[in-house]
């Protein structure tokens, strides 16, 4: 979850490190720090709080250091504080380390190191790393880091700076992402590509167990046995501007407005010109295997899990194969009943989500083929899955996922239609009708976005609410869950989502005068049932904000406010219905003065369990 940067070359390191950290602050922003090698001494500058505080402190810093490392933290072990901030150093001050991940056996290592005379100053698991390096160092930093790796358990992306080996950085990765940026007479390290784009597009994506040794002149990669590895250069194709705000007040708002483009890009080349079929040549799925599937398992976390819930509904409805959806953090601990006749679909925006990656590995261990839906090319999940369907959302910087979610929904539709075609559970006419509507989603999303002022007005009215409830049936319930998550994660309003039919089984006790209830009613076959549920909450004096397709004027007789989405095939409604909910969450967070892009206690890419 934390962000790591490193630099070695002819330029001043501090501005480069701070600039890189600014691009990674979405990964964590509890504290920030840098360590640079200057005049034969490691100088550490770090403090609690967001990067801006550290940058202000270093504004007049004139140091000429040419090699350094930096870190922006999402706290796991130890509260956010100056002391717990990275980098951490050893007793002698000869080694500095930044680390993303969790060292699971740090307590026993800390106790053992303490018995050897090492003294600790922080509460973090990371601090054992520089002390271990100090213990094992015999004049060869690479060998010392290799010895450390032999003694630690857990996940890590680690970068080490050493006094005795200037102009060198040693990095190693296990279950946490790390990217090498290849320059001319200089080289870079980062947790994610946006931190590198100001300097280079040529990168190495490190695999688990690999170690990178950087100097200004070269980059060498080794496997866990110390053998040299020939890496393929990954050339970044997207523009740096895609990771900028481009005039929007927040990244989240920009990314909400990028959804029409993201939908187009994710569909591009995947639909037959005559609307007759889905074209997924990149998957190389065997038709015979797809016809013999007995079950599909979808696993993911957070917003991606909500996309999986939509996927379950759509795949079962169109392809008529049983689908189970599980939260990835629970998947491998309950001995799932899967085998070679089960297709496991894992969904992850970053492709690095630790729990989802663990679920993928468990599925493969049990013999199931794995299809990954991810937004990041060459990510860990993309590399380890049997098949990959990329969503072309582009970089998503805001912690709250928006365009990644809607493109994940599109991926679910593509998979469902392909399965239905192969298994013969959908007619050509039905297929063409859905595909024709898929092609219209981008323009209909643009229409919703053009009416954003209506939602801004609602946010001004209800932005100070302390409790909000979301209700819906069928696909609307899955979207309600996502709308609820968006609201609570960025506005800190307590929000809950319920299947509308469950209200009378306990939840109505929480409905009282003035409580806002967001009621989704986009599913024609469930409209009358949902309307009855709306009347139930209105009878308890709730305030209802209804969301429906154009033409459902009956809602205006019972709801306090009605938001409309353009008409579409009901199975595709989640893509359009979620956009007003994203905008509502955003506008309510703005009204409350919340930090929209960097909500408290959260980080974008969850790379620890």
UniProtKB/TrEMBL annotation:
<dbReference type="InterPro" id="IPR001347">
    <property type="entry name" value="SIS_dom"/>
</dbReference>
<dbReference type="InterPro" id="IPR017932">
    <property type="entry name" value="GATase_2_dom"/>
</dbReference>
<feature type="domain" description="SIS">
    <location>
        <begin position="458"/>
        <end position="599"/>
    </location>
</feature>
<dbReference type="InterPro" id="IPR035466">
    <property type="entry name" value="GlmS/AgaS_SIS"/>
</dbReference>
<dbReference type="Pfam" id="PF01380">
    <property type="entry name" value="SIS"/>
</dbReference>
<dbReference type="InterPro" id="IPR035490">
    <property type="entry name" value="GlmS/FrlB_SIS"/>
</dbReference>
<comment type="subunit">
    <text>Homodimer.</text>
</comment>
<feature type="active site" description="For Fru-6P isomerization activity">
    <location>
        <position position="604"/>
    </location>
</feature>
<feature type="active site" description="Nucleophile; for GATase activity">
    <location>
        <position position="2"/>
    </location>
</feature>
<keyword id="KW-0963">Cytoplasm</keyword>
<keyword id="KW-0315">Glutamine amidotransferase</keyword>
<comment type="function">
    <text>Catalyzes the first step in hexosamine metabolism, converting fructose-6P into glucosamine-6P using glutamine as a nitrogen source.</text>
</comment>
<keyword id="KW-0032">Aminotransferase</keyword>
<dbReference type="GO" id="GO:0006047">
    <property type="term" value="P:UDP-N-acetylglucosamine metabolic process"/>
</dbReference>
<dbReference type="InterPro" id="IPR029055">
    <property type="entry name" value="Ntn_hydrolases_N"/>
</dbReference>
<dbReference type="GO" id="GO:0097367">
    <property type="term" value="F:carbohydrate derivative binding"/>
</dbReference>
<keyword id="KW-0808">Transferase</keyword>
<dbReference type="GO" id="GO:0005829">
    <property type="term" value="C:cytosol"/>
</dbReference>
<feature type="domain" description="Glutamine amidotransferase type-2">
    <location>
        <begin position="2"/>
        <end position="217"/>
    </location>
</feature>
<dbReference type="GO" id="GO:0006002">
    <property type="term" value="P:fructose 6-phosphate metabolic process"/>
</dbReference>
<keyword id="KW-0677">Repeat</keyword>
<protein>
    <recommendedName>
        <fullName>Glutamine--fructose-6-phosphate aminotransferase [isomerizing]</fullName>
        <ecNumber>2.6.1.16</ecNumber>
    </recommendedName>
</protein>
<dbReference type="GO" id="GO:0004360">
    <property type="term" value="F:glutamine-fructose-6-phosphate transaminase (isomerizing) activity"/>
</dbReference>
<dbReference type="Pfam" id="PF13522">
    <property type="entry name" value="GATase_6"/>
</dbReference>
<dbReference type="GO" id="GO:0005975">
    <property type="term" value="P:carbohydrate metabolic process"/>
</dbReference>
<dbReference type="InterPro" id="IPR047084">
    <property type="entry name" value="GFAT_N"/>
</dbReference>
<feature type="domain" description="SIS">
    <location>
        <begin position="285"/>
        <end position="425"/>
    </location>
</feature>
<dbReference type="GO" id="GO:0006487">
    <property type="term" value="P:protein N-linked glycosylation"/>
</dbReference>
<dbReference type="InterPro" id="IPR046348">
    <property type="entry name" value="SIS_dom_sf"/>
</dbReference>
<dbReference type="InterPro" id="IPR005855">
    <property type="entry name" value="GFAT"/>
</dbReference>
């Amino acid at each position: 979850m934390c962000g790591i940067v490193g630099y070695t070359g002819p330029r001043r390191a501090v501005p480069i490190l701070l600039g890189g950290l600014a691009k990674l602050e979405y990964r964590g922003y509890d504290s920030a720090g840098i360590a640079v090698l200057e005049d034969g001494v490691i100088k550490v500058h770090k403090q609690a709080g967001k990067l801006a505080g550290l940058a202000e402190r270093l504004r007049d810093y004139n140091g000429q250091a040419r090699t350094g490392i930096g870190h922006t933290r999402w706290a796991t072990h130890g509260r956010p504080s100056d002391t717990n901030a990275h980098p951490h150093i050893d007793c002698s001050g000869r080694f500095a380390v930044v680390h993303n991940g969790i060292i699971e056996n740090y307590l026993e290592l800390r106790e053992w190191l303490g018995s050897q005379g090492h003294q600790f100053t922080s509460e973090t698991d990371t601090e054992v790393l520089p002390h271990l390096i100090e213990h094992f160092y015999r004049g060869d930093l690479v060998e010392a880091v290799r010895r450390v790796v032999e003694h630690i358990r857990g996940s890590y992306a680690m970068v080490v700076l050493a006094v005795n080996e200037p102009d060198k950085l040693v990095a190693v990765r296990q279950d946490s992402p790390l990217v090498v940026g290849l320059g001319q007479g200089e080289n870079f390290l980062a947790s994610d590509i946006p931190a590198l784009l100001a300097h280079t597009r040529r990168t190495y994506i490190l695999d688990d167990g690999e170690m990178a040794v950087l100097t200004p002149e070269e980059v060498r990669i080794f496997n866990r046995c110390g053998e040299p590895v020939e890496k393929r250069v990954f050339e970044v194709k997207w523009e740096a501007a895609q990771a900028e705000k481009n005039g929007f007040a927040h990244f989240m708002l920009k990314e909400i407005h990028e959804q029409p483009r993201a939908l187009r890009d994710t569909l591009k080349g995947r639909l037959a010109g005559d609307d007759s079929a889905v074209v997924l040549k990149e998957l190389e799925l065997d038709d015979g295997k797809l016809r013999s599937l007995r079950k599909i398992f979808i696993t993911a976390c957070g917003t991606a899990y909500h996309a999986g819930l939509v996927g379950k509904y759509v795949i079962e409805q169109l392809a008529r194969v049983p689908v189970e959806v599980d939260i990835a953090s629970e998947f491998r601990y309950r001995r799932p009943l899967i085998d070679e006749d089960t297709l496991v679909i894992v969904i992850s925006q970053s492709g690095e989500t630790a729990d989802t990656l663990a679920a993928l590995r468990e599925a493969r261990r049990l013999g199931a083929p794995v299809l990954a839906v991810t937004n990041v090319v060459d990510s860990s999940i993309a590399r380890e899955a049997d098949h990959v369907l990329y969503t072309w959302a582009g970089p998503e910087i805001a912690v709250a996922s928006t365009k990644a979610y809607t493109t994940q929904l599109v991926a679910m539709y593509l998979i469902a239609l392909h399965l239905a075609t192969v298994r013969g559970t959908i007619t050509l006419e039905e297929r063409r009708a859905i595909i024709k509507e898929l092609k219209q989603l981008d323009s209909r999303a643009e229409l919703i976005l053009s009416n954003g002022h209506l939602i801004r007005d609602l946010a001004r009215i209800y932005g100070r609410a302390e409790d909000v409830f979301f209700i819906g049936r069928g696909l609307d319930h899955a979207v309600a869950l996502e709308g609820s998550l968006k609201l609570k994660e960025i506005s800190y309003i307590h929000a809950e989502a319920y299947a509308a039919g469950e209200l009378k089984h306990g939840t109505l006790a929480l409905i009282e005068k003035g409580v806002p209830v967001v009621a989704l009613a986009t599913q024609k076959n469930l409209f009358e049932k949902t309307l009855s549920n709306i009347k139930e909450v209105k009878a308890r004096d709730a305030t209802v904000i209804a969301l429906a397709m154009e033409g459902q004027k009956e809602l205006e007789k019972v709801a306090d406010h009605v938001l409309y989405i353009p008409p579409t095939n009901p199975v595709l409604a989640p893509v359009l219905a979620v956009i007003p909910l994203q905008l509502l969450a955003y506008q309510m967070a703005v009204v409350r003065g919340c930090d929209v892009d960097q909500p408290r206690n959260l980080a974008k890419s969850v790379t620890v369990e």
